[in-house]
Design a protein that fits this description.
alpha/beta, Rossmann fold
């Protein structure tokens, strides 16, 4: 089997692809042009992608492809319906990053509520050495306990976030398209969840119904001074509307690990927005998480080759 691997997201020397090498001949691509992509994938049987778009043009150019794997839980870069029509199996890697992303949600939240980046920068600038008292606190900090966190989406990550929030003493409200039977938390329609939440965190997939779900209309429904956290997909948020809400003070802060166009563009309206803490799509990236992702992605392909595919999404 000839396998094409999009390794653009796996920089550094702490990751290897030995599990894939055991399955066949491996060809690596890293941010290819479309022409380079088609040349690399010509005659290949399988391709494993992260951000490479698999659409009609690709399938027409590479008709031998029978398997598309995704180095992610989300698979919005793949036209799954067309793949199904063409007899191409598409598999994702669900659940690999649950703990890492939930951890990052609270890293962002604690940084915002504790003003940690601001205070750390102040100390590094020597402000504490000039203080007359043992501590100084020019910027207010706040407790998480007693706050209400609204979770949009109740998959594995949403569930993990709810559990951690409960441990912090937060009140949990959940809004999800398909209400689960086993949810121990308050289930609310989106509008009600937004209205009661001090923090809103996004954990739903990006699709036609969720694109831009956080916009000027839904932001207006949120509590004055609420905080928005997004570690899911940048396209869930209207970035101009979020910038306006931060600048006006309607929202007190935002913690983002994703933006609509990545890598982030120099003209992104959130780049210099007030009280906007942004990390470069790293919630999924702890070493243990990446190793788990590679192992499961390779296992998906191995099982497909054996006629027993798992994690099929189409």
């Amino acid at each position: 089997m000839r396998i094409v691997i999009d390794n653009a997201a796996f920089s550094g020397d702490d990751i290897h692809f030995d599990d894939f090498k055991a399955l066949g001949e491996v060809v690596y691509i890293n941010e290819p042009t479309r022409a380079e992509l088609y040349a690399a994938a010509a005659g290949c049987d399988a391709i494993i992608v992260n951000k490479v778009v698999i659409d009609r043009e690709f399938l027409d150019a590479c008709p031998t492809i029978k398997y598309v794997g995704v180095f992610a839980t989300g698979y919005n870069v793949v036209d799954t319906a067309l793949c199904r029509e063409r007899g191409v199996t598409v598999c994702n890697v669900p659940g690999y990053s649950t703990d890492a992303v939930a951890q990052h949600v609270f890293a962002l939240m604690l940084s915002i509520f504790g003003q940690i980046p601001r205070y750390a920068a102040s100390v590094a600038a020597g402000d504490w050495t000039r203080s007359r008292t043992f501590c100084y606190f020019p910027w207010r900090t706040f407790e998480l306990a007693g706050k209400t966190i609204g979770i949009l989406g109740y998959g594995s990550i949403g569930r993990a976030v709810a559990k951690i929030a409960e441990a912090f003493g937060m009140n949990v409200a959940v809004s999800t398209r398909t209400p689960p039977k086993d949810c121990p938390y308050k289930l609310l329609p989106l509008e009600e969840m937004l209205a009661v939440s001090d923090v809103v965190t996004l954990h739903c997939p990006l699709n036609a119904s969720t694109g831009g779900i956080i916009n000027s209309r839904t932001i207006a429904m949120m509590k004055d001074g609420a905080v928005l956290i997004n570690t899911a997909r940048g396209g869930l948020v209207d970035e101009e509307a979020l910038r306006a809400a931060l600048e006006s003070g309607k929202l007190s802060a935002a913690g983002l690990d994703v933006v609509a166009a990545e890598p982030m563009r120099a003209d992104n309206p959130l780049l210099k927005a007030k009280n906007c803490l942004i990390t470069p799509h790293i919630a999924w990236a702890p070493l243990e998480t990446r190793l788990r992702l590679l192992k499961i992605a390779a296992e998906n392909l191995r099982l497909f080759m054996e006629g027993k595919p798992q994690n099929v999404v189409n």
